[in-house]
Write a structure and sequence with these properties.
By secondary structure, this protein is an alpha+beta fold. It is 23% helix and 36% strand.
């Protein structure tokens, strides 16, 4: 027999009344605003409370509504209590009284308690303040406190955006009362100028910029229009005086062309004798084409000597956007800091790259602390990166406890093991992690090991290593990994050795001895060869990663081995410029080298270094003994001195080893396919116009998909199809730069096509839309993929479209590109 009863307990006594009274309801851009915040209890009595105060652009909530809800209901939600009557006849007792926590004690411990917690104005025209600061958040303070009188004052300057600003306050008291309030104020002007421009320009673009003025004054005004332009060539257009009636608007157009890369600074002005306005926008101008690079690295040993690196540029490449950079470090530690910059600036954020973006910094910072050496790593920025990375990884975790390459693909063994290992290292470094997520990841690894008894041996080795270093691996898993040692690559053998080392198993010493026998050594350096990545399952040179893991094992098991410093030297010599070929390899190498640095405490020796390009000096530097852990010396060679190619010379005198790297880059618009033996990869791109069809106003709107030929018009909708073909690949990335003057349309399902083609669909693991490009990711690529997305034409002009490109993300030398294109847009 059951019964149910609902009891409503009013929260009146737990609810605060919060008000926020601004000193005015309308503000000018940049003006200081003052808010009187008052908190009172249910009886109207002032209370001391802790508040958060946020001021954000109301337009944000048109993109995504505020879903945080009422703070009182959050802390005091509806609760259900069920009663299950029982008798003592159902219980058996076995003499364990006092060993179990009684239910009443559990309740007393708080089971159901809430948790707290260009025309210059003449003398008669008003000179405007140029608006240029447009953040979405005007103010945020989580530490506002009302005094005994219940009041607190908050002051800040509003940004330059003309918009409605939403004030959101949430408050709590020490005894658990809560409340909040949302209010709004307006920042506006009576004469407003706007600038209709693309989000960016691309080198070679030609477009029309429109300066628009709105007159909200009481009378008609003669408005002087002006546009100051930096970084662009003005083809046509000049300042004009236009009469605008009250509550009216007008515009003036300028035609501009983007010749050089960099930034364009545009200042639009609308000037009158009563009120004026000015608006400044800075827009990027990326190069036309696909970035290409060549890189080299090496060392100069103690004494007097030099090292040389030849470089060249393809004929016809734009000399104005070529680059040449040389970097020098007085110790192997400098090569690590150089690579950290590469990892933190990498543009994509999959599971592996999220972990690789902060974990190596954390490892290096921890090692430097142990050496009591001043670190060039910004700790505040590092803490921010770690927290942001952890939050992203938490959001990527799947229901089964594992991680995939992205949050929407199936869990993968390596990705799960990599995150589990990284979370453990973050915890060991003193960062607070959500422990249950680590444990769910470990459980997922245990299940994967059991479900795949015949998995790739190297992958098993890494999985066991991840478990062993984060709480322990099952003995049977360690045993099986060790028993498979004859099937392991050198990398896998090093990983098994590290797992055994973490478990305190004496077989780790035997693994280290086996590793030492596999080294390829010379008089100055040593390495371990690898040509297959068993963790990500692809064939390529993995010698840097393999060598780093072997070095890591030897540092732990045989510190005195002559191979230890030789392996570090080899890694410093064999870089792809400032990093090791991919984010994953770079992260692994940094981990291995950091263990070596912590052991050796390597410091730079005194030396003099000079960099020459084509025989002419571009810089000299003295390195002292205390600069071993300083940031590397980097020289960006002037374009004129780099010329069309030549030779870089690193000349050194003094003690110790000097590590150098060099990279030259250029942009190419050539079409390129990849073919190497049986491996192939190619990409094509096609533009289509969605031609509207509607026989009568009452008929539904449909569209024909028409291959694009000739010009389009503002307001047209375009469909872009990328087709990638070839052999099977893993972790494929396709990027397609879009023409400036267009905007992405997210909901292609709203456009009903007549005779919809078979290739129209979502054939990807993940897609991302950025300001200037679309990106599509496929964890598994099985010979053919089509990607489709929509663009709306917004700005008139003639826009250059760089080639689309595709390639496996962890094999950077493999790339295919399309032809470039041009989009002509008429008003």
């Amino acid at each position: 027999m059951t019964a149910q009863k609902s009891l409503k307990v009013p929260l009146v006594e737990r609810t605060l009344t919060v008000t926020a009274t601004p000193n005015k309801t309308k503000f000018l851009p940049g003006e200081k605003g003052s808010f009187d915040v008052f908190a009172a209890d249910f009886a109207g009595k002032p209370v001391e409370a802790d508040l958060s105060f946020g001021e954000v652009d109301e337009a944000l909530y048109a993109v995504r509504p505020d879903e945080t809800g009422n703070i009182v209901n959050f802390f005091y939600p509806r609760r259900e209590v069920s009663l299950d009557p029982q008798t003592s006849f159902d219980f058996y007792f076995f003499g364990e009284a006092g060993t179990k926590s009684p239910l009443l004690a559990q309740l007393a411990n708080g089971q159901f308690h809430p948790r707290l917690a260009q025309v210059k104005p003449g003398s008669d025209l008003v000179v405007p303040k140029v608006r240029k600061a447009f953040p979405d958040t005007a103010y945020w303070n989580p530490n506002v406190h009302t005094g005994p009188d219940g009041h607190a004052r908050v002051e800040f300057n509003f940004p330059d955006a003309l918009t409605t600003w939403r004030t959101t306050i949430r408050a709590m008291t020490d005894d658990g009362k809560a409340g909040g309030v949302v209010t709004r104020v307006l920042v506006r002007k009576n004469l407003i100028v706007r600038l209709a421009a693309p989000r960016f320009f691309r080198q070679g673009d030609e477009t029309t910029l429109r300066v628009i003025a709105h007159n909200y004054l009481e009378t008609a005004k003669d408005v002087t229009f002006a546009l100051d332009v930096k970084g662009l060539e003005v083809i046509s257009g000049q300042g004009k005086i236009v009469s605008i009636p009250p509550k009216g608007e007008s515009y003036v157009d300028w035609r501009v062309r983007a010749h050089a890369t960099g930034n364009a600074v545009l200042t639009a002005k609308a000037l009158t004798k009563e009120e004026s306005d000015a608006l400044e926008m800075t827009l990027p101008i990326p190069p036309f084409g696909v970035k290409q690079r060549a890189a080299g690295s090496g060392v100069v040993f103690s004494g007097e000597g030099q090292s040389q690196w030849p470089y060249s540029y393809p004929p016809g490449s734009d000399a104005g956007i070529r680059g040449l950079t040389v970097t020098v470090a007085p110790s192997v530690a400098g090569t690590v800091f150089d690579a950290l910059d590469y990892l933190t600036s990498y543009p994509w954020g999959c599971t592996e790259q999220t972990m690789s973006s902060f974990l190596p910094d954390l490892i290096v910072a921890q090692a430097i602390d142990k050496l009591h050496i001043k670190s060039p790593i910004d700790r505040i920025e590092l803490n921010r990166m770690v927290q942001a990375g952890l939050e992203r990884l938490y959001g990527f975790q799947h229901d089964d406890g594992g991680w995939g390459w992205w949050p929407d693909d199936p869990s993968r063994l390596f990705m799960t093991a990599y995150v589990v290992s990284g979370l453990g290292q973050a915890r060991d470094a003193g960062y607070k992690i959500e422990e249950y997520r680590l444990q769910r990841g470990r459980t997922a690894l245990d299940k994967m090991l059991a479900a795949h008894p015949e998995m790739i041996p190297d992958l098993r080795a890494y999985t066991v290593y991840a478990l062993a270093t984060t709480g322990g691996a099952p003995k049977e898993a360690l045993d099986k990994a060790w028993e498979s040692r004859d099937k392991l690559s050198y990398e896998g053998l090093a990983l098994v050795g590290l797992a055994l080392d973490a478990a305190g198993d004496p077989r780790a010493s035997e693994a280290a001895q086996l590793i030492e026998k596999k080294a390829k050594a010379t008089g100055t350096d040593a390495y371990w060869a690898g040509n297959y990545d068993g963790l990500l399952d692809y064939w390529d040179d993995t010698s840097p990663e393999t060598t780093a893991l072997a070095l890591k094992l030897l540092v732990r098991q045989d510190k005195a081995s002559a191979l230890v410093p030789k392996a570090a030297i080899w890694l410093g010599k064999h870089r792809d410029g400032t990093y090791w070929f991919s984010t994953k390899q770079t992260s692994m190498v940094i981990a291995g080298l950091t263990d070596y640095l912590a052991l050796s405490g390597e410091l730079a020796n005194t030396s003099e270094v000079e960099i020459l390009v084509n025989g002419a000096s571009v810089g000299k530097r003295h390195f002292g003994a205390g600069e071993g852990f300083a940031s590397p010396w980097r020289i960006v060679v002037p374009v004129a001195q780099a010329g069309g190619g030549g030779q870089v010379t690193v000349r050194k005198s003094g003690n110790g080893i000097t590590y150098w790297s060099a990279e030259n880059n250029w942009y190419s618009a050539d079409r390129k396919s990849f073919q190497q033996g049986q491996l192939a990869l190619n990409i094509t791109r096609d533009y289509y116009l969605l031609q509207k069809k509607q026989a009568t106003p009452s008929d539904p709107i449909t569209y024909d998909l028409v291959p694009l030929k000739g010009a389009v018009h503002v307001g047209d909708v375009l469909a872009i199809k990328l087709a990638v073909g070839g052999t099977n690949w893993k972790y494929l990335l396709a990027e397609d730069p879009i023409p400036a003057g267009t905007e992405f349309l997210d909901h292609s399902e709203l456009y009903k096509l007549n005779n919809k083609p078979d290739w129209w669909g979502d054939w990807f693991t993940r897609k991302e839309f950025h300001d200037d490009r679309a990106a599509f990711f496929n964890t598994e690529f099985n010979g053919r993929r089509e990607y489709v997305y929509l663009l709306k034409v917004v700005n008139p002009g003639r826009f250059a479209i760089s080639p689309a490109q595709a390639g496996p993300m962890y094999q950077s030398t493999i790339q295919t590109t399309t032809d470039p294109a041009t989009l002509e847009v008429q008003p």
